[in-house]
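Key result, reporting period 2: structure in, sequence out.
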């Protein structure tokens, strides 16, 4: 499934940010909403072991809503998505390095 794990960046994250002792998730804005809505059925580790874009997090939420009886999140949803994308978002930016000049198309001369 979606359990792509990058241990190195998780360790870095844990060192740089305070983790909530109860959930093991980063203690920051939105944490309490996530704790309230997202740890009732499964461990918070399912969250912290993932790194997804906002779109993928939303898909995961929709999947749980349609198949796992997750309730509608209402006004908490954007707060939860902000939190998840900030702290458990993709670590590697999709921006690629510039194409080296010698690989660029040549002029017509
Ligand atoms: C009503 C129960 C329920 C709630 C509440 C719930 N989930 Fe889940 N979630 C599940 C179930 C069931 C699974 C599948 C567990 C498994 O595969 O072992 C799951 C799986 C996941 C996965 C792993 C998906 C994958 O493809 O590997 C993630 C990430 C996740 N949930 C995040 C969340 C987040 C974020 C929230 C809060 C918005 C949340 N869950 C709230 C039931 C729930």
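The corresponding designed sequence is given below.
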């Amino acid at each position: 499934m979606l359990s792509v794990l990058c241990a190195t960046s998780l360790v870095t994250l844990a060192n740089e940010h305070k983790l909530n002792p109860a959930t093991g998730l980063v203690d920051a804005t939105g944490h309490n909403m996530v704790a309230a809505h997202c740890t009732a059925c499964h461990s918070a580790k399912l969250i912290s072991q993932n790194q997804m874009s906002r779109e993928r997090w939303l898909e995961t939420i929709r999947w749980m809503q349609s198949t796992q009886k997750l309730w509608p999140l209402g006004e908490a949803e954007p707060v939860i998505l902000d939190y998840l994308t900030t702290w458990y978002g993709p670590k590697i930016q999709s921006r690629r390095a510039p194409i080296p000049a010698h690989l660029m198309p040549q002029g017509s001369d």
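Helices lie at 7-16, 31-38, 45-48, 54-67, 76-87. The pocket of heme C is lined by residues 1-3, 37-38, 40-42, 46-47, 50, 60-61, 64, 68-70, 73, 80, 84 (CB under 6 Å). This case is discussed further under Risks and Mitigation.
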